[in-house]
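DM between two lab members

TW: hey, do you still have the SLC13 family permease entry open?
JB: yeah, one sec
JB: this one, 611 aa:
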Amino acid sequence: MNPQLALVLCLLGGCVVMFVTNRPRMDVVALLAMVVLPLAGIITVPEALAGFSYPNVILIAALFIVGEGLVRTGVANQIGDFLLKHSAGSEPRLLILLMLAVAGLGSVMSSTGVVAIFIPVVLLVANRRKLSPSRLMMPLAYAGLISGMLTLVGTAPNLVVDSALRHAGHAGLGFFSFTPFGAIILAAGIGYLLIARRWLNRRDDDGGTEHRRRQMMDFVKDYRLESREYRLRIGVGSPLAGQTLESVGTRRRDAANVVAIERPKAGQHSELLEPRPDLLLQVGDVLMIDVAEPPDEERLQMLAGLKLEPLPLRGRYFTDRSRDIGMAEVLLPPDSGLVGRTIIEVTFRTRFRLNVIGLRRGREAAEGSIAEEKLRAGDTLLVIGRWKHIRNLKKHPHDFVLLTLPAEIDEAAPAASRAPFALASLAIMVVLMVTGWVPNVIAALLACLLLGATRCLTLDAAYRAIQWPSLILIVGMMPFSAALQKTGGVDLAVHGLLQVFGNSEPRLLLAALFALTSLIGLFVSNTATAVLMAPIALSAARALGASPHPFAMTVAFASSAAFMTPVSSPVNTLVMAPGKYRFGDFVKIGVPFTILVMILTVLLVPWLLPL
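TW: and the structure you got?
JB:
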């Protein structure tokens, strides 16, 4: 071992220790590695910074943007709804469906891309099911890695070993040559994670109630809105049918506030309409009403006379429609144009297209009707309406200070009407990636441009969607690959393997080949690992007089089995932050699973591909 290799191994060991202790942050450790390696003279500055020009880094960044486009147009919500609907409230079934969906899609396109697209979906599903994201993020990553074991194009190492076989004069691998092995490993992975998921529930995920983001139900309690919500359907013969909402004048007469209107559509779910003053009411419309005072017997009789049929509520204070209807707290500054006037006088709903349903002065919430209450500086109003109109309040800084937005805003789709364009952009990207007509990174960048051109997301939203710490971590660890190769570390490990196991029983050599490939893959990209190990595997097969295909297949599977650390694959790195994992979480879950995959590979490969 030369001095430079010893230094590289010491630096690598130091990085692993800092990763395990999480001090400092992992992306900071990666930046330190990029600085120290060229300062030590082991690699050049261009080699240290080469990761920034690596196509897959740009690809990952672009796929974050594609994922954000799916979120902002509501497509991610629809995928989440599908998973929730078909999981029937069962977490094991949800995990199975998630892993099958990710593995299936990842078998024909970039696994990194699939995971990047599914991260927001998993976060939404976890939030709705009140699950810790950590219970789903690692299964998401593992399904992405296993997807590379299902088809020839599932991951780059498969193509590398196929090319090595053909270059050596052997028959290549077919598109589905990997499928029998990968399907069994996927089934084993699902079974393993169904058991291991209990170790994934991070105690610090919830962060305690003091750091929990406020939700709409918190507003309902703070402003005492319980039992104030009603759903009333306009029946046949109602005098309200054919009238505009303005002519009805519910707020003035009955201290009632129409929050939204559900209008049934043939063969579809009801359409949620904004309560505009000029909206014509129809028979069958369902009025979602906030009533400041509980209706007495006289009012109930009046409702019956108007042929308004009370309907059951599907969520407390309409929170079941939180994707369409939002709430927010706004503060009135001293120079606000609303101070000294009532909500009716300022025609609040007409001006801002929102309804005021709550008022707080200090810590006390006003009770009863607030429609004719003179507003004061420092008052806090609770408004309700479409999310896009709530966001528009930022355009009126002299009238309002937007205080609190609830957590449900993350599930709102500000560009829901653009969903078909988002799906078309995604489909074009997938087709281009599967056919190989253009490089993957070009396909992803084209999808980003299409999402922007069709107004599925804004440029600011696109930049915010990129998880920069994950990218820095990936880029910062790449110089170690060049350092290990330049200092002879990889060659040393490979020659040792042949010396120790070259004359052993073939299955033992396959196990050693798998173990060494997995170990190298902890520090070198899986593609580079396959490039280094494929010739060694074929040489070992030739020395034993055995078929080269089992040895090549073993290298391919071992290259994809990057389950043991968060830095062994970009897929793992992506779920690190949203899953709130520590370095040790991957070691604890990944090492046993890697051993399981190695055992399955050593047993299955010689059986289906005889030596």
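TW: got it. DSSP finds 26 helices and ten strands in the chain. The CA atoms of residues 150 and 180 lie 8 Å apart.
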